[in-house]
Amino acid sequence: MSTRKKNILKVIILGDSGVGKTSLMHRYVNDKYSQQYKATIGADFLTKEVNIDSDKVATMQVWDTAGQERFQSLGVAFYRGADCCVLVYDVTNTKSFQSIKSWRDEFLVHANVSSPETFPFVLLGNKIDADDSKKVVSNKDAQDLAASLGNIPLFFTSAKTAINVDTAFQEIARSALQQNQNDADAFEDDFNDAINIQLDNDTNSCSC
Amino acid sequence: MNVKDQYLDTASTRSFRSGVRPSKSQSGFNIKTRGQPSLSINLDNTIVQTIIPPVNNTLNGDNEDNVSLNNFPRLRSMQSISSIVSRRPTRPNTVADQLSVNTSFDPLIEQSFSYSNNIEDPSTRQAQDTAFNEEARKDLIDRLAQSIYSYPASLTGNSYGFKPVVSNEIPDVFINDNQTSPDFKSHSKNFFILTSAGKPIFSMFGEDKQIVPYMGIINTVVSYFQINETTNIRTIKLNKTRQTFAFTNKAPIILMAYSRRGETTNELMTQLDLLYSYLISSINERQLKRLFHNRSNFDLRNYLEVTDFDNLRQICSLLSNKLYPDFGLNALQCFVMRKTERARIHDTIHNLLINESKDIPRGTLLYGLILSHKRKMFKLCAVIRPKGHSLHTIDLQLLFSLITHQFENRDGDQELWLPICFPKFNSNGFLYSYIKYLSRSHANNSSQMEDTVLVLISAQKDAFYKLKTFGDKLWNKLQHDKLDEYFVKDRFKFRISDIQAPLVHHFMYKIKKYVQYVMPEIEIHNDDATKLTQYECKLKKYYGHLYNSVVDDTGLPINKTILNYFHWEEEEEGEEGEEREEGEDAITETQRDFKREKINMMGLIWITPQFELYLICNNGVNNKEVVLRSAKRIIGWCKKYESRLFIQEGATF
Question: Which cellular component, as a GO term, is one annotated location (chain A) (predicted)?
Answer without folding.
Answer: late endosome
